[in-house]
Amino acid sequence: MSEQIYSHTMSAEELFLLLLYQANQFELFKNFIIEVLDLKEIMTVNEFHDLFKQYKDMNKTKLLHNLMMMKPTLEDMKIDISLL
Predict the structure, then answer these.
(1) Of 84, 78, 62, nearest in space to 15 by CA
(2) Burial of 51: CB neighbours in 10 Å, binned 0-12, 13-18, 19+
(3) Nearest in space to 84 (alpha carbons), one of 17, 12, 20, 15
């Protein structure tokens, strides 16, 4: 069975709006998780902020590694997006 590759044609404006939508959805989901963990008294919001700050500071020493690991290509995702 071969893998299915999806092909879409989008304008630059549509692609930008999609990326903004996805970024907004991620922020909403992240905030939801943080609030649930805070309400369940597992980890407070302030502890999350401290944890994120520590992670950011720690990763300054691994910038090249992070760029390589966190820069996926379209081929990795098996999606072909053509801009008009």
Answers:
(1) 84
(2) exposed
(3) 12
